[in-house]
Write a structure and sequence with these properties.
Layout lengths: L1 H10 L10 E9 L2 E3 L1 H10 L4 E5 L7 E6 L5 E13 L5 E13 L2 E9 L2 H11 L2
Parallel strand pairs: 1-7
Antiparallel strand pairs: 1-2, 3-5, 4-5, 5-6, 6-7
């Protein structure tokens, strides 16, 4: 339920409200970039400047699971198809996204997000052309 709230907060452009889920020193990686929670939230929020009708479950329901591994670590893993309508190109973008969160107690200590940013970068480039 917590991860669904997190994902919904992204769609509603309110990730900052979920910051208390993460430890202050949580290791957060988005593709190849190490970020703080504030940097991740700001980066994801900026997508709303370039896309309308953002959804993480328009094409299919979320695939979400939480499991405890033999080494004692608890991970929540999710994959979905992100969609958004480009504000500058009018293109309906669809991007496969995968994320994993590692828990210690009720806090996230590590987060990894993986997706191909090509369509997002194309929309940003179109916006810069005016």
């Amino acid at each position: 339920k917590t991860m669904m709230k997190f994902t919904d907060s992204y769609v509603n452009n309110d990730l900052i409200s979920m910051s208390d889920l993460f430890t202050e020193d949580a290791k957060i990686m988005v593709n190849d970039s190490d970020l703080t929670y504030s940097q991740m939230a700001a980066g994801f929020s900026s997508g709303h400047n370039y896309f309308d009708n953002i959804s993480n479950n328009k094409v299919q329901p979320y695939n979400l699971t939480t499991t405890r591994y033999d080494n004692g670590q608890v991970w929540t893993l999710c994959w979905f198809i992100w969609t958004g309508s480009g504000k500058y190109t009018g293109t309906e973008a669809q991007i496969l996204v995968h994320y994993g969160f590692r828990w210690q107690g009720d806090k996230i200590v590590a987060a990894y997000h993986f997706f191909d940013p090509t369509l997002i970068n194309n929309e940003i480039a179109a916006a810069s052309k005016g």
